[in-house]
Specification:
By secondary structure, the protein is α+β, with helices and mostly antiparallel strands. Among the domains are: 141 residues, no CATH class; 130 residues, 2-Layer Sandwich (Heat Shock Protein 90), CATH 3.30.565. The chain has eleven helices and five strands; from the N terminus they run H-H-H-H-H-H-H-H-H-E-H-E-E-H-E-E. It has a five-stranded mixed sheet with strand order 1-2-3-5-4, covered by helices on one side. Helix 10 links the parallel strand 1 and strand 2. Helix 2 packs antiparallel against helix 3, helix 7 runs antiparallel to helix 8 and helix 10 runs antiparallel to helix 11. The longest helix is centred in the middle third of the chain and has 82 residues. The protein is rod-shaped.
Length: 408
């Protein structure tokens, strides 16, 4: 049993939520039983005092009638939570001929003020005041002035009603605060879920951008070895070396991603310390593709003067990933074609990255793909403050173009 479940008895039943242990909301909590019992005893005490005061000038049948009506009125208070309005009306009418029901009337008025809106409270309070006034003349008290009795009844009804309305307003405030807390908790959970979703998408995008290029190289060279079993030993050795290097790089990249996912205290393998690719490593990417047998032309025209701001690291990394994805797609869907990678930019004008390949000369084996790489690159470019477009080129090939910001 949790601490919250143990403290459920301290709350009124309407504020009790289903417990973690599965306990349903009770009709009455321990606190409700204590309050109801206290009101019953208080109403009974007021009735006994009124009966004792009226016994001095009342006949035996009237005394017996007062005792029976007073007992019934006090017992009826156990119904005040279910039928507060009907009970208050009935007890007010009964109090006209039975002053001993006055305590029960006040208790029922308190319940109405707590549970009903002001309009209902007002007319029921007016009914109680009218009944109290009529009762002064129907069952007069010889020891008390009639005017004082009317004023006393009015003041008591007003105080009890005001007390009940104060309790009602406090309950409404507590409920509003609880609802606000529930909304804040739900919004926090939603924000956490969105953050987790964005983190998963970023991880998936990073894994695709990093591993797709390496695995494509593995696939190309493994396929070459499969379809060229009679290749010269030097070519086989070179392809095997590329496969080995690509597999090693893929493992290093995967270790880096896993290292990022771990907490800093657990990331002891140094996988996250590898330098990130930038625009300066674009030559190495093109050289790697050429070594794999691709025909790649790099047209790099970027202002690198000493007095100009350098390309931001995030912009250079995004440009590298865009070129990497373009080379990977060309290798998969248009093998043997000439791929042109064009990078141009100046501070203040931005950085333009274009990867273009013509249509393949012959049929190309179908390579399964989900298109998530291009979607991820579009999101990556948008996160960097740029934009990316891709689609068929006028010559029948495929073009990928992106613009990335480069502050002056």
């Amino acid at each position: 049993m949790t601490r919250t479940d143990r403290q459920r008895w301290l709350l009124p039943s309407h504020l009790v939520e289903p417990g973690e242990s599965g306990a349903a909301r009770p009709r009455r909590t321990v606190r409700d039983w204590i309050v109801d019992t206290s009101l019953f005893l208080l109403a009974a005490l007021v009735g006994l005092v009124a009966a004792d005061a009226g016994a001095e000038y009342s006949s035996e049948p009237v005394i017996l009638f007062d005792q029976l009506v007073g007992a019934a009125a006090c017992c009826a208070l156990w119904l005040r939570r279910r039928w507060p309005v009907g009970l208050a009306v009935a007890l007010s009418l009964v109090s006209v001929v039975a002053p001993v029901a006055g305590g029960a009337v006040l208790a029922s008025l308190f319940s109405v003020a707590v549970r009903r809106p002001f309009r209902e409270v007002a007319w029921i309070g007016a009914l109680a005041v009218a009944a109290s006034t009529v009762q002064v003349f129907v069952r007069p008290d010889p020891t008390l002035n009639a005017g004082i009795a009317v004023v006393l009844g009015f003041v008591l009804i007003l105080l009890v009603t005001a007390w009940g309305m104060l309790v009602r307003s406090r309950r409404q405030l507590v409920e509003a605060l609880r609802e606000r807390a529930r909304r804040a908790e739900a919004e926090a959970e939603l924000r956490a879920a969105q953050a987790q979703r964005l983190a998963r998408e970023a991880i998936a995008r990073e894994m695709h951008d990093i591993l797709a290029h390496r695995l494509t190289l593995l696939s190309v060279h493994a396929g070459a070895l499969e379809f060229r079993p009679d290749a010269p030993p030097e070519q086989v050795a070179r392809a095997a070396g590329v496969i080995r290097d690509s597999a090693h790089e893929a493992l290093q990249d995967l270790r880096e991603i896993i290292g990022v996912l771990r907490t800093p205290g657990e990331n002891g393998d140094g996988g996250g310390d590898r330098p990130q690719p930038t625009l300066a490593t674009l030559d190495a990417l093109v050289a790697e593709s050429r070594e794999a047998g691709a025909d790649v032309v790099l047209d790099l025209d970027v202002d690198t003067a000493e007095d100009t701001p350098a390309v931001p690291a995030s912009t250079g990394r995004t440009a590298y990933r865009i070129a990497q994805e373009g080379l990977t797609n060309a290798r998969k869907h248009a093998p043997g074609t000439k791929v042109t990678v064009t990078v141009r930019g100046r501070p203040g004008e931005g950085l333009d990255v274009t990867v273009h390949n013509p249509a393949p000369a012959g049929p190309v084996p179908h390579v399964p793909g989900s298109g998530q790489g291009l979607i991820g690159l579009t999101e990556r470019a948008a996160l960097a403050g740029g934009r990316m477009e891709h689609g068929p080129a006028p010559d029948g090939g495929f073009a990928l173009h992106a613009w990335l910001p480069w502050p002056p």
